[in-house]
Amino acid sequence: MVFPRAYPSMQERVREVQSKFQNHHIKQNIIKGKIVIQNHGQSGPGKSASVQIYSSTTVDPSTGKGKLSAKAYLKRGKSEGHDGTKTRIYKIKIHVEPDFGIPGAFLMKNQHKHKFFLESVTLEIPDNQIIYFDCRSWVYPFQKTKSERLFFSNNSYLPNHTPSALVELRKLELVSLRGDGKQVRKEWDRIYDYDYYNDLCNPDKGQEHIRPVLGGSELHPYPRRVRTGHPPSNTEPSTESRTETINLDIYVPPDERFSPKKLSEFISNSIQATVHFIITEADSLFKQDSSSFESFDEIHDMFSSKRSKAVEGKAKDKLKGKVKERLKKLVPDVLFKEITYAGKEDLAKFPLPQIIRENELAWGNDEEFGRQMLAGTNPARIQSLQKFPPEGRYGMSTIEASHIEHSLDGLTLFEAMNEWRIFILDHHDYLMPYLSKINTNGVCAYASRTLFFLRTDDTLKPLAIELSLPGSSEDTEVSRVFLPANQGTEAALWQLAKAHVAANDSAYHQLISHWLHTHAVVEPFIIATRRQLSVMHPINWLLRPHFKDTIHINALARSILINSRGILEKTLFSGEISMELSSELYKEWRFDEQALPADLVKRGLALEDPDNPNNPTEKFKHGGLRSRMWAMVISATRHGGTK
């Protein structure tokens, strides 16, 4: 990554710029600029917005900050479009004093009635030298914020290297971002403080909507989120109140909010993708009188033309009308206007998965089942089997050597394990304590252990699946082992066992690998970075692309995805205990095990090299590619600031 850098000889550059200003007539003490604003359906700010720039090299003794220029107003914007993004570009001229020096920050004052998304600002100083500001944030009306918005240039500085003219500005901005942990957050607030996940349920709607608060306790630990400050619910003061509508406009600091283009993509894709789960009328398209599927054929029909033909003509138009009417009740008016849903998409269509498109029966093959363990959605759970039979928190597995020895391509079990060729996908221990509760709601879920054999062509061959349920007495369980079969009842049971493994793996992927490990655990790091590291700090610059949009995505997830009766509860077998289950697995999460080398070693997929901890010896034939890629990331991170 290339860091924005400070100028190599700042004092010489300042003298050069000031000399050029002083050698020109006062009318020529002008800095030209270009301001790019991304369109979002509202009129541009025009002359209702103004800019003032701060010097990074000349201190105003009366304020202790950089010298401040005169105001320049945005006038006569020109519309442009590039890669689907519509922008409006304003050119400005800013008058400065001869000793102004080099710009380092600017104030934007929005006296328009609407917010706007400021994409970038470019300033040109003598000799066509460019100062660039990568803004990518919303600027709200001054009548709401009561203050101008401050932006710093792309030059990065460690705190002790910050130009003296910017030190006070840097300090004041960090203080303002931390807030005081009080008051309800307004849309225009730029404040990052912490809170628990206490906004996932709505106890005021009834007992069935109550969920535990996640975070702040040993029983239910969880990462922190950005605080919104909503008032408590009436029936349970420890939880925040929720609106009756789907709140897609939940508080997110302006720097973290989607750009207009990203918001448009979210509305057109995500709303349409989830409408089946939030609107009863749409749901009735494919589930008339049952909450479960009766056969594999019924699932397959969801992705075929049969379902589309089932609703045609006036019936389809009537359904779309109902969906539109229902959707209007679910989302705020301002958002409903932006949703161009009805009439443009066929509600009866689900996109056909690629695997079915290529081969309708591929999903049932053992080869594909093994491939999905590494090339599917959740490749980070499989691990090398270190001991046979597998042993867990509740005792030994019932898988025996006789179950699998005939499937090891001529090797004995001892030889296969000695060559690191036996692998396990383990969804047993963490599920067992919750199965009794899960299975009281008409669900029939099992905890699973699956063994695989690594063949010489680097494919994984499934060997055996163990499915387990809690026993009739405490600390006991009932288990059954299923083996590969091609015909008869055994073949049907084998397919069913693989389906249960896939259900376990899918739930783990959605709740843990994706939501918890990718989204939730990152949010407190974003909050801490914004509160403690200035936007000019090199580490802030390094992390910025990795943090992009995460807080906004997480906020939307709390509104429609992970909340009580949300999409995950409706689609995963874990149902209403889904988030409680993710809290239980968060107890196992450790920051120092997240880097690729540590993760590979922990799962027994690589051997630790004490002399080279960033490049462990991988056990797969072609596995070293991952370690080499990791080494490249490390190198780019270490040397990015000098390139």
TrEMBL record:
Domain Lipoxygenase: 156-643
Biological-process GO terms, alphabetical: fatty acid biosynthetic process; lipid oxidation; oxylipin biosynthetic process
Gene3D superfamilies to which the protein is assigned, alphabetical: 3.10.450.60, Lipoxygenase-1, Domain 2 (4.10.375.10), Lipoxygenase-1, Domain 3 (4.10.372.10), Lipoxygenase-1, Domain 5 (1.20.245.10), PLAT/LH2 domain (2.60.60.20)
GO MF annotation, one: oxidoreductase activity, acting on single donors with incorporation of molecular oxygen, incorporation of two atoms of oxygen
Superkingdom of origin: Eukaryota
Polar residues bias (residue ranges): 231-242
PROSITE patterns in UniProt: LIPOXYGENASE_1, LIPOXYGENASE_3, PLAT
Region (Disordered): 213-242
Name of the protein: Lipoxygenase
Keyword vocabulary terms for this entry: Dioxygenase, Fatty acid biosynthesis, Fatty acid metabolism, Iron, Lipid biosynthesis, Lipid metabolism, Metal-binding, Oxidoreductase, Oxylipin biosynthesis
Residue intervals of the PLAT domain: 31-153
Organism name: Populus trichocarpa (Western balsam poplar)
Xref: Pfam families: Lipoxygenase (PF00305), PLAT (PF01477)
Family listed: Belongs to the lipoxygenase family.
Co-factor(s): Fe cation
